[in-house]
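Readers outside the structure-tokenisation community will struggle with the description of the input data as it stands. Showing the layout once, in full, would remove most of the difficulty. For illustration, here is how one protein appears when written out as sequence plus structure tokens:
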Amino acid sequence: MTEDTNKNENKNEANANITNKNEAKKEKKYVKSVWRSVSVAFILLFIVTSAVLASSSLSGTVPFSFQSTEAKAPDEVAQTAVDFIKENMVAPGTEVSVKEVSEEKGLYKIVLEVKSGTMAQEVESYITKDGKIFFPQAIDMDEVEAMKEESEEQESQEQETQDVPKTDKPKVHAFVMSYCPYGLQFMKAYVPVMELLGEKADLELNFVNYAMHEKKELDENTRMYCIQKEQNDKLTDYLRCFLEKDDYESCIESTGVDSDMLEACIASTDEEFNITELYNDKSTWSGGRFPKFPVEDDLNEEYGVRGSPTFVINDKVISVNRSPEAIKDVICSAFNNPPEECEEELSDKAEQPGIGSIGAGSGASSGGQC
């Protein structure tokens, strides 16, 4: 009996410890979430107010400046901030105290301790020297920019360390959906590389075996497939035009694509792979949502393609930054003896997702996929 009682007591104690740990986690999460949510709200409010005041200042109706003519003592201003936080920003019972006050960027920097139950969090806030404008949290833009650069450098290093198989003439597949924003982004970065290395490597544009963007995607997939198959010398010109304008009719005309030959290819491809028939029979759709595009089923299965874009070099799926230079570099790394074209520098800025001009990228990388 005593043994059973001890077991029950030990079990109860263990359960109590787990409960206490869970409660502690909840308290910590609560402190962070409350501060973050309220901080965001006040930052947004401050931005709107600043815009209004700045506009008024420009019109000459309200003088607006962070340079206070009524600077107060640091401790007095810090206490003003604490009182404001307790009254407006945290739940009743939350403890707020000042740990440190210093001057920074023409403002008072206050290190606060926000405590709820047994959990506490330190927060850095700022306030004008007259105690009139409070900044719950500050964003160091230089730090954010540095983090962005570090992330891009790390991504570039990861790309460089990928073990890309080498051959005399690399075989490259770029699987896309023609209206997927990220597929369009990849194509914009891929086209300059196709133009540069098209005679040195076997560079193909391929298509995911289902569509996510209505019937127009099936039609455009087939159109691009046929231009590549029968009028390959017109492909990159057509892609440049389509990626910018999303107007296949004018692009066919302006790039000199033989429309009769193209229509014949589209009709025969549709008949061979039952593209329209499969579209009209929704019972065949992938997951009941996406019509099939089985033109390159074999390649999709071989490389395990699950989305747009999927990039394959010498039978290996590769992750790459979506800039022309990054794509060129990884393809050039797949040559046993890279050609002199690999020395030419292309744009190192990642292209923008969606329809738009090639070369208009912001430089922000993207790993999105349809």
User: Anything to note?
Assistant: The chain has eleven helices and eight strands. The radius of gyration is 30 Å.
